[in-house]
Design a protein that fits this description.
By secondary structure, the chain is α+β, with helices and mostly antiparallel strands.
């Protein structure tokens, strides 16, 4: 008969063996993804901007020369100024400033209305009318917005038809929603996400990998998902709450803005540099605003990232904020590593901000990291427990004063110039 010590030792060895097998399996999967990305990169050459048409900007309200609809488009170095009639493509991130609202109509006849201070990314878009099939993924980073997901679409010569195969997904940091033909709101709070339904049904589940506990939210109901938790039980949507959400997303004074007027205003914007970034951060401007203003003035996002890190901002917060604001996750990861930020900090911050694994791998490749190093570091980031990710997200400052340290000092080993990167000669 085995002694208690032997049984305990044998149990530890078994658990260790199982853990090792799981780690090796995950490592193998990531290595395969890294190798596959090398093959794809070699076959396709340089990356091209996505040109999958998704829809158009229909209406804009509250636009001024300093506040306008911002479009961050993959493959473009500057922020684009969105105007009524402008096309929206897969991969675009649409952002509204204070006092600005925008309404977008997609090619499947879905209508999206974004309230002020909103941030929406068209992460994936496919609408095949001939076979009545669509597959769309929206990432809601922040703000309040209304989605009227079309049930029908106009078919050439045969009137209106129903979508036979329809998959529409709304992704947030806290929760993921699946919808069909539905009219609903999503509201991103500091530590929760709300889904309020006017018509139809929305299935909401936790964004945690492998998370369960899906709830169905019906007409005139709402559900709130706390950070790291399961979706809350559906409850009645009060008339007051419904009225507030409608008012926030309704464009009462929609207007067009003369293109040349806005273009001239943007051209006149003062060119940003490292000193301007440091000055604005010290003055208390939000990090997201400083980043957008710098990019809008013509400063490449790579330079902006390094400049904010050099100004003393926590590198992890810079990575997290840039990705949450819609900038290319692969570019952010590549730049941060090239600027000398520790890869594990970059990976964990990127994953916490919602970056997908392939984007992180691509960015690390661009910074010159060896595949084995990428795999090992990414493994540690992807197997993080939810508590760790929640802690990182909770540390993201909500006020400008918490972005900078009490005394701005060189980061030393975590920042510096691009030449500080251990992976780039």
């Amino acid at each position: 008969m085995l002694s208690a010590v032997a049984v305990s030792r044998k149990g530890c060895e078994m658990r260790s063996s199982i853990t090792d097998r799981i780690a090796r399996s995950l490592l193998d999967s990531i290595l395969q993804a890294v190798l596959l990305s090398f093959i794809v990169a070699s076959a396709s050459g340089t990356a091209q901007a996505n040109t999958v048409f998704a829809g158009n900007i229909k209406l804009i309200e509250g636009v001024t020369e300093s506040e306008y609809v911002k479009i961050i488009r993959p493959g473009f170095t500057k922020i684009l100024a969105g105007k009524p009639g402008d096309a929206i493509f897969e991969g675009d991130t649409i952002k509204t400033d204070k006092g600005v609202k925008v309404q977008i109509e997609l090619s499947d006849q879905t209508i999206i209305s974004i309230a002020p201070n909103g941030n929406l990314q068209i992460a994936g878009y496919m609408a095949e009318r001939p076979v009545a099939r669509r597959n769309t993924v929206f990432k809601v980073m922040k703000g309040t917005m209304r989605f009227i997901i079309s049930k029908l679409f106009k078919s050439d010569g045969s009137g209106e038809r129903s979508w036979k195969d329809s998959a529409v997904t709304i992704e947030t940091l806290n929760a993921v929603a699946g919808v069909r033909g539905t009219d609903f709101f999503t509201v991103i709070g500091e530590a929760d996400v709300e889904f309020s339904v006017i018509d139809g049904v929305v299935g909401v589940r936790s964004a945690r990998p492998g998370g369960n506990g899906e709830v169905l939210v019906g007409a005139n109901q709402m559900s709130i998902t706390k950070m790291g938790g399961k979706p809350g039980r559906p409850e009645a949507l009060s008339a007051g709450r419904r009225e507030l959400l409608l008012r926030m997303t309704t464009l009462d004074k929609a207007m067009s803005l003369m293109n040349d007027k806005l273009d001239k205003a943007l051209t006149k914007k003062k060119k940003y540099d490292k000193n301007a970034i440091k000055r604005d951060l010290a003055a208390g401007k939000p990090l997201s605003t400083v980043i957008d203003n710098a990019v809008a003035s013509g400063m490449p996002i790579g330079e902006v990232i390094c400049a904010t890190i050099d100004a003393g901002v926590n590198p992890g917060i810079v990575v997290y904020t840039c990705i949450q604001e819609g900038y290319s996750a692969s570019k952010v990861v590549e730049t941060a590593i090239t600027c000398g930020v520790a890869p594990n900090v970059v990976f964990i911050s990127a994953v916490s901000a919602g970056a997908d694994q392939q984007a992180v791998i691509t960015g690390a490749e661009g910074a010159g990291m060896p595949p084995a190093t990428i795999a090992g570091t990414l493994t540690n980031a992807t197997v993080m427990d939810l508590v760790t990710i929640s802690t990182i997200v909770a540390a993201i400052p909500v006020t400008p004063s918490t972005v900078l340290p009490p005394v701005v000092v060189p980061i030393g080993g975590g920042g510096g110039t691009p030449s500080a990167s251990p992976y780039v000669p």
